[in-house]
Automatic annotation (TrEMBL):
Region described as Disordered: 450-474
Gene Ontology terms for molecular function: RNA binding
Domain PORR: 50-385
Protein's organism: Solanum bulbocastanum
Top-level taxon of origin: Eukaryota
PANTHER family linked to this entry: PROTEIN ROOT PRIMORDIUM DEFECTIVE 1, PROTEIN WHAT'S THIS FACTOR 1 HOMOLOG, CHLOROPLASTIC
InterPro entries from the UniProt entry: PORR_domain (IPR021099), PORR_fam (IPR045040)
Name listed for the protein in its UniProt record: PORR domain-containing protein
Length: 474
């Protein structure tokens, strides 16, 4: 009996050790493949890495938005000017506090001009000649690219599942797509062979619908980029066929398994954004992966159709249901920081602007268009130094009040002597200097003014209207 109990105790001890070994084996060998599978897939929750080039761009854009609000306010007033006493009251609708509007317009003397009314003897504010020229240049550029805007709107409608979009959603994003303010009449109703405007009975909302589906418009911008890179650089066709340009922001940590996951994702086939997917079964895991990559291609194409290759995340969300985009757009875009960049600058972190990374280099658009250049002209006026205005105002009466001595005094107070002399040539011109008096410019750049040289008093608007080269300073 004693022998039987000892044998059974040994058997139980051996079984317990075998059970322990069985429970220990999965912790080493079965959990490690699970971790490997997670590491070789693109993480869903990623931290946003800042790119200072895009953030600096949005810091300037933040100032431009406020300047444009004041421009629209002035253009709606009689004679495009407003009394300073009324400006503070009207600016509160833009979120400005008391006495903040006056300080704001004084920061941008190249855009806004404060003057005394000749009859009422009170201070008024109006737009400068340079600012009015920039507005006129943007209007001309907007009208000149209306045919491109028609094609752009047709492609946007083809991106939707039903070929239609709400009129209000397109109106909100009209400036991003280069559409005029009255695009409902100048674009939609003017081209009935391309668009159809109707009212929905269920929601009582107006919709824009594409009339004809042109196969020539169903070519994505990323396909043209792939073809161009394949012709120039070559490589394996399987690696280039479904790939996107990836350029990660500085400081983005890329591990070994993350590289493998990106490589697999680049080779993953997907349905094109303009392709009809109503006949496919989307319940499988492979179909969901293809749909996720199709959403990346759709947002990529939507950004390619914008004028400045950027749009706010909130405006993309308006097209989410119509274009089968994910619900959590921000988290979805953070998975692909090498393709898109989300900037939170501009409205105290409440506004999210999505950039197409491959379209920008060092904070500037690689392939600019006329409308983009006209809008950046306002950024140049905003970033111009106020000292330039001081030079212009002093040059108006420099011959009357001492001329060269006054410019020298200004230079001693922190100005640039060569810049002041160059301003004389640009603003007044060599012809006016020769015609108004005995003023000669030497070969070494010095301007010798005779004691009998008299100059007529120039108008402030004529001086600011002179052609001059401006550079954006950060």
């Amino acid at each position: 009996m004693h022998i039987f109990l000892s044998i059974s105790a040994k058997l139980l001890q051996s079984k317990s050790t075998s059970f322990k070994s069985l429970t220990w084996i999965p912790t080493v060998f079965l959990l490690s493949p699970k971790q490997m599978s997670q590491s070789t897939s693109i993480p869903r929750n990623q931290q946003r890495i800042r790119d200072h080039g895009f953030d600096d761009y949005m810091e300037v854009e933040k100032k431009i938005r406020k300047v444009m609000k004041f421009q629209e306010l002035l253009l709606t007033q009689l004679n495009s000017m407003i009394a300073i006493s009324r400006l503070d009251m009207l600016a509160r609708r833009f979120g400005f506090k008391q006495y903040e509007a006056g300080k704001f317009i004084l920061k941008f003397p190249h855009v806004f001009e404060v003057f005394e009314h000749p009859v009422q003897r009170i201070l008024y504010c109006r737009l400068t000649r340079k600012s009015l020229l920039q507005i006129e240049q943007e209007k001309l550029a907007l009208l000149a690219q209306v045919p491109q805007a028609v094609t752009r709107l047709r492609k946007i409608l083809l991106l939707s599942n039903t070929g239609r979009l709400r009129l209000e959603h397109v109106r909100i994003a009209r400036k991003d797509f280069g559409l005029p303010d009255d695009f409902e009449f100048s674009v939609v109703l003017k081209y009935p062979k391309y668009f159809r405007l109707f009212d929905a009975k269920e929601t009582r909302n107006k919709y824009i619908e594409v009339v004809e589906r042109d196969p020539r418009l169903t070519v994505c911008a990323v396909e043209n980029v792939r073809e161009r890179e394949y012709r120039e650089k070559g490589g394996e066709e399987e690696n280039v066929r479904f790939s996107f340009r990836v350029n990660f922001p500085p400081g983005f940590k890329i591990g070994k398994y993350y590289k493998i996951a990106v490589w697999k994702w680049q080779r993953l086939p997907y349905w094109l954004p303009y392709e009809d997917i109503s006949g496919y079964d989307l319940r499988s895991l492979e179909a969901q992966k293809r749909m996720e990559k199709r959403a990346v291609a759709t947002i990529h194409e939507l950004l390619s159709l914008t004028v400045e290759k950027k749009i706010t995340l909130e405006r993309i969300a308006h097209f989410r249901l119509a274009m089968d985009l994910p619900k959590k757009l921000k988290d979805f875009l953070l998975q692909h920081q090498g393709i898109f960049y989300i900037s939170t600058r501009g409205n105290q972190g409440k506004l999210h602007t999505v950039f197409l990374r491959e379209a920008y280099r060092k904070g500037e658009l690689i392939e600019p268009n006329e409308l983009y250049l006209a809008r950046r002209r306002l950024a140049e006026l905003v970033l111009l130094s106020p000292r330039k205005v001081i030079v212009d105002r002093r040059l108006i009466n420099y011959g009357k009040q001492g001329g060269e001595d006054e410019i020298a005094d200004y230079v001693e107070n922190g100005g640039d002597h060569s810049a002041a002399r160059e301003t004389v040539r640009e603003d007044l011109g060599e012809e006016s200097l020769d015609s108004d008096g005995d003023c000669s410019i030497d070969s070494d750049g010095d301007c010798s003014i005779d004691t009998q040289c008299t100059h007529k008093e120039a108008n402030n608007d004529d001086v600011t209207d002179a052609a001059e080269d401006t550079h954006v300073t950060e």
